[in-house]
Design a protein that fits this description.
889 residues, alpha+beta, 10-stranded mixed β-sheet, 6-stranded mixed barrel, 22 strands, 14% strand, globular
Length: 889
């Protein structure tokens, strides 16, 4: 009989039974006719035919086994029985499904982020052919001269360049930002991305002297113009200059950077249209482009690497940065280009959060194991209550493997129900988690659609979870002794080893919970230290104003004068205590460093003489709350006469050890000519520059009037006792008085500092939540085990009380038993934590991975929770009425 027919018979049980009965009746009739033909009477012939045919029930079952897929029918029957059994115990089923759903959902949510940030390929055709060009040092940032040298090399038609940027759509007033990218004309053809309206950029659109054209995403077209068809031919203002929209990109393509949803694509050549300086495309020290290519399907990475190795020397020889030192220029000329796989594009989000996401995966997997231990204990208790049922099934011939399979079917059904609940929870949780990556000024876009990889992960998690918590309870349940279980008192029979297994599971829960509590304590402690540390500035009450004069078209002298007037007017605003201006602000993702020469100091390397710089106005240190420890601050006259500089304490100690730096000379070192000598006039205390967790770096501050720092844009800082946002209307009014074309962007210094703490905040918040969840699960497990133990020893406790045992002694006995169980788990947990928390070292600040205080507090917290979980069962044990207990027995 064919497999298809046997499978079809599963869904027609009554019809199959009728067919089998009719076939047996036919064979019996045939045999009776044969016997009757030999001379037997009809009744005797039918009787003899039935004797020779055999037992009809057995024959019917044997025939049925042949006509159907027996194992599948049995599995369906097991599933049907399991569903009825779980439906008959809604309390147990609800608790188990919710516990598993939360654990599986948390794992799926974190894996969804891992998939979106790290594993998923770009949504383009044959993304596996994409490669990224890097130099031999692993750096993937290039200048436009390097890109043009590569672009114009024969055989490089499939390569393209991409540089993430942001575009201001406003012509004046407060900025209206849109994510964008400078792209080469070869990008869309190489990626095989198609338009939904108009056309996309081509190589002919990206040549020096090009006009302003751009391509936008479908979302931008719908948001700004009401649809893709309406967008083509429209004009948008980018950085104050008009660009014509020639096409709309197909939906689903978000660009080359995971975490960003690029809205506007403009050709690289059009940078010159919005730049404030001439010949910006020829700058050999502006590293802003990534270069990609599509390798030929028949070529591996080795073929592309060999090709780039051949073309590298002339490209680097022709693009040497002129302002680099001779040693750096020589090293630059020896660099080579190579390629690496780029199916997933690139992502700053990936490099920042990759390790953190894997740590969270381990954390949520541990929570799931703890939840599985709880469900396993529930199943052990449930199996003990079902001993009579299991004994009956064994007594009437069911094999032990048959019982194991039945119990496992129930476990897997619970797990898959939990998996479905987990998927629903993960959809909500993963979207919530994305908010941890985003800030008000920097929204993160991630494609969290359910794909095959996430679905497979959820199914695998549910299946493995079902086996993890179901296998041992099922095996234990099948070992019931039918004779003991079916006695009148069999309802109370429970093997000691089965109870010992539950205690071992709880001890394991306590140990794993302690590990998570310790990890959360370390991460939360590190975050607290970062938040409460003294960074060398005061973050509260400061409004940051980025002001850009590029759209005014004013010449440089007028811009300088306007910036100075604006600063004076900002200082006179009501509610402003101090105001300053600077090239950059701390923790702004913007930096400037240079090498310096100090008479009497011999650097061991170029890096040894590199210091951070900032250009600031007088009053900037007071505005930022950075104290002056020696000398003086800048004054209005600094910058128009002798060159001066203020240094921080780290620079003073490094370059002027044991002596005062005041009056000493510092010179900026460049390859073409040395900078002017600068006299040290002051020392300020150390302040963080790029990150709160960094070591204090040598930093030099120069007057903003001393060089060309009053450019098209500048950063202003306003300190006020009032809410910083209350100053915004007044700032807008001042800028509008100067020119309606001035653009402004506002932020608070507190928000900027907070944004720099996104990763430690994510780890601290989620690890704390999951540690609390693990602690709750462990407490529930401990409570259940202690309560079950008390119920098991009910008769013994009743006898003790009847013989005169004090109730307080019974209370202490139960608490001591629970304490021993918790102590075993705590000891095991401390040992495990000491060996595993070292993996968190790179995420910690101000704490070691083996911090004794955190270990001790975590152990005390867990011990207190264990005592609290044991109090109610202990009180119930001490409150037993011995008369009623003995009467029950």
């Amino acid at each position: 009989m064919s497999w298809s027919r046997r499978l079809r018979n599963l869904f027609r049980p009554e019809g199959l039974s009728h067919d089998i009965d009719r076939e047996m009746a036919f064979h019996l009739s045939e045999k009776a006719d044969e016997l009757e033909a030999r001379g037997m009477s009809r009744p005797d012939a039918e009787r003899e035919a039935r004797k020779r045919f055999g037992h009809r029930g057995t024959m019917r079952e044997n025939t049925r086994e042949v006509d159907v897929l027996g194992w599948l029918e049995s599995l369906v029957a097991d599933a049907r029985y399991a569903f009825r059994a779980l439906r008959a115990n809604p309390g147990f089923t609800t608790v188990a499904v919710l516990s598993l759903g939360l654990g599986i959902g948390a794992n799926t949510a974190i894996f969804s982020l891992v998939n979106a940030v790290i594993l998923r390929a770009l949504p383009i055709e044959r993304s596996e052919e994409l490669v990224r060009v890097v130099n031999t040092g692993g750096n993937g940032d290039f200048t436009n001269p390097i890109w043009e040298g590569l672009r114009d090399t024969p055989g490089m038609e499939s390569y393209f360049a991409y540089g993430s940027t942001g575009f201001n759509l406003a012509t004046g007033g407060e900025v209206r930002n849109a994510s964008g990218a400078w792209v080469s004309g070869s990008m869309f053809p190489a990626l095989r991305v198609r338009p939904v309206a108009g056309r996309l950029l081509e190589p002919s659109d990206d040549r020096r002297g090009c006009s302003g054209v751009a391509v936008v995403s479908e979302g931008f077209a719908a948001r700004e113009f009401g649809g893709a068809a309406n967008a083509v031919g429209q004009k948008v203002t980018l950085q104050g200059k008009p660009f014509e929209l020639i096409g709309v990109v197909e939906p689903g393509f978000f660009g080359m950077e995971v975490g960003e949803q690029t809205a506007i694509y403009a050709p690289i050549c059009s940078i010159q249209l919005v730049a404030s300086e001439p010949n910006v495309l020829d700058r050999r020290s502006r590293w802003f482009l990534s270069v990609y290519g599509r390798r030929h399907p028949e070529n591996g990475l080795e073929a592309e690497q060999a090709l780039l190795k051949r073309v590298s020397p002339p490209i680097f020889a022709a693009t040497i940065p002129p302002n680099w030192s001779p040693a750096d220029q020589k090293e630059y000329e020896t660099m080579l280009l190579t390629v690496q796989d780029a199916a997933g594009g690139f992502s700053g989000l990936r490099s920042t959060y990759k390790d953190a996401l894997f740590v969270l995966l381990v954390v949520v997997a541990t929570v799931l194991v703890i939840g599985c231990a709880n469900v396993a204990n529930l199943l052990l208790a449930r199996a003990a209550a079902r001993q009579h049922e299991l004994a009956v099934r064994l007594a009437i011939g069911a094999g032990r493997w048959r019982l194991v399979r039945q119990m496992l079917t129930e476990s897997l059904m619970l797990a898959f129900a939990g998996g479905i609940a987990g998927l629903l929870f993960a959809r909500w949780a993963s979207a919530l988690l994305v908010r941890f990556f985003s800030t008000r000024r920097d929204a993160v876009f991630l494609d969290l659609t359910l794909d095959g990889r996430v679905l497979l992960f959820s199914i695998a998690a549910a299946f493995l979870t079902g086996l993890l918590f179901g296998l041992i309870p099922a095996w234990r349940a099948s070992r019931v002794d039918p004779q003991s279980a079916m006695k009148a008192q069999g309802r109370g029979v429970t093997r000691g080893s089965r109870f010992a297994l539950g205690r071992a599971l709880v001890a394991g829960q306590v140990a794993l919970s302690l590990v998570l509590i310790v990890a959360a304590g370390l991460l939360m402690g590190s975050f607290r230290k970062l938040v409460t540390m003294d960074p060398g500035f005061r973050r509260e009450g400061v409004l940051l104003v980025s002001m850009n004069l590029a759209n005014t078209g004013w010449p440089e002298p007028q811009r300088r004068a306007t910036h100075r007037q604006i600063l004076d007017r900002l200082r006179d605003m009501p509610g402003v205590k101090q105001a300053g201006a600077s090239y950059t602000t701390p923790l702004s993702n913007s930096s400037w460093n240079d090498r310096i020469a100090v008479p009497g100091y011999a650097p061991s390397s170029g890096r040894d003489s590199t210091v951070m710089f900032n250009a600031v106005s007088e009053g900037w240190f007071a505005t930022m709350g950075t104290d002056l420890v020696a000398g003086r601050d800048f004054g209005p006259a600094d910058g128009t006469g002798a060159q001066v500089v203020v240094v921080n304490e780290t620079l003073a100690k490094k370059f002027f050890p044991g002596e005062s730096p005041l009056g000493r000379i510092v010179t900026v070192v460049t390859s073409d000519k040395p900078g002017p000598p600068m006299e040290v006039i002051g020392v300020v205390r150390d302040a963080k520059y790029q990150a709160l967790r960094e070591e204090n770096q040598p930093t030099a501050y120069v007057p903003i009037d001393q060089g060309e720092w009053w450019g098209t844009w500048i950063e202003y800082q306003l300190r006020s006792d009032a809410t910083p946002a209350a100053l915004i209307p007044l700032v807008k009014s001042i800028a509008a008085d100067m020119s309606p074309a001035i653009t402004l962007e506002f932020n608070t210094f507190e928000e900027q500092v907070s944004a720099s703490l996104r990763r430690p905040r994510l780890l601290a918040t989620l690890s704390g939540f999951f540690a609390a969840l693990a602690l709750t699960l462990a407490v529930i497990g401990l409570y259940g085990t202690v309560a079950y133990g008390v119920a098991r020893r009910r008769s013994e406790i009743g006898v003790r009380l009847a013989l005169g045992a004090a109730r307080g002694r019974v209370l202490r006995m139960v608490l001591a038993d629970a304490g021993r169980l918790a102590l075993v788990g705590i000891v095991a947990g401390v040992a495990t934590a000491l060996g595993t928390t070292r993996l968190l070292t790179s995420f910690l600040y101000g704490l070691t991975a083996t911090d004794i205080r955190t270990l001790a507090l975590s152990a005390v917290l867990l011990a207190g929770a264990a005592i609290a979980a044991s109090l109610l069962p202990a009180w119930r044990a001490a409150s037993l009425d011995p008369t009623e207990t003995l009467r029950e027995e």
